[in-house]
Amino acid sequence: MRKHSKLVLVIGLLYFCPTLHADELGKPDGVALFASEQDGYATYRIPSLTVTPQGTVLAICEGRKNGRSDAGDIDLVIKRSTDNGQSWGAQQVIWDDAGNTCGNPCTVVDSDTGTVWLLCTWNLGDDTESEIIAGKSKDSRRVFVMSSSNDGATWSTPREITSDVKDPNWTWYATGPGSGIRIEQGKHRGRLVIPCDHIEADTRGYYSHVIFSDDHGATWTLGGVTPKRNVNECEVVELQGGRLMLNMRNYDRSKTTRQVAFSDDGGMTWADQKFAPALIEPICQAAIERYPVDGKDAHSVLIFSNPASKKGRVRMTLRASFDEGKTWAAERLLHEGPSAYSDLAVLANGRIACFYEAGVRSPYETIVFSQTELSQLKEAQSEVGTKSSDSDAKRSE
What we know:
Layout: H1 3-16, E1 31-35, E2 43-51, E3 57-64, E4 74-81, E5 92-95, E6 101-110, E7 115-123, H2 129-133, E8 142-148, E9 159-160, H3 162-165, E10 170-175, E11 178-179, E12 181-182, E13 192-200, E14 206-213, E15 221-225, E16 231-238, E17 244-250, E18 257-263, E19 271-280, E20 287-293, E21 296-307, E22 314-321, E23 330-346, E24 352-358, E25 366-372, H4 374-380
Parallel strand pairs: 6-11
Antiparallel strand pairs: 1-25, 2-3, 3-4, 4-5, 6-7, 7-8, 8-9, 10-13, 12-13, 13-14, 14-15, 16-17, 17-18, 18-19, 20-21, 21-22, 22-23, 23-24, 24-25
EC number: 3.2.1.18
Organism: Novipirellula herctigrandis
GO biological process, one term: ganglioside catabolic process
């Protein structure tokens, strides 16, 4: 029996026979950097991955003290690697504000200065998302920025920028999560762009938007908002010529795929919002990154990661596009079982790094660091297709 046939058989058995043990799907590809009930936290979630100009790999996430809830006592924590992820330093806390929620990490590197910028959000620990959305919370959802000039070893004191980047009519607000970009081409070259989302109080509708800095992170400004609602968590990528593409989590379930929108003015406005049929999703965050070919940004490949399933958070899949995201011709399956949020980065050695939530029985057991050669994605297209996606077991939370 061919490998693909075996895969379909296992998925089918799981779907129709609930008694099948989840660990028969195998373990996630890579090394678990953060694991539940370790180092003082009940759960780790919301990965953000970046590589500094010196090649140091920074793996950042939320450390949730008391459980899986999005509210409560949540800190931002980090692990660092100076050898392309072969070994890692001890876990460090970036921001701990007593029992409050410090989360939604989104990083961007300014290659001109070497500074790593970390955008994030804050709210009172006993304010829930539903209360904030309804305008019934004790405090608001606030936006903060931190920076590191020594490869993530230490970080500046969090600085609030809420009034600069949040409309007064917005209730819920989230940075990223994941990574932003520095624009490398065109008249906006050098601009730092962070993908975000929000809810408007009058409609309670989700929208995606961006914020940006043209002065190396000293100040941040609100950019454009998507023309249509029903999208939120997103990442941004630069296409050839400096055009930007926003890749977004989709709540319009007439299509079980991602949505995209485009900007030709550095993120000031967004247009041509549409579904991305090849990128199926179970309503979840995803990551997108530009992979420079031969060290040249002008000739690049796009890489993308998400749980590639219409029915549940399973099948963490790494994809590659060689035509600016029009098609996704190559892919590699990283984990067949439960998996959820992810982020991507290109290591100093040219390998693709995926930092993703995964487990045997739940997506939130660990956050895993995996490395892949671009050539492995090219080879994988003959082994891992998308035909089995409609048969995936439902395992979302």
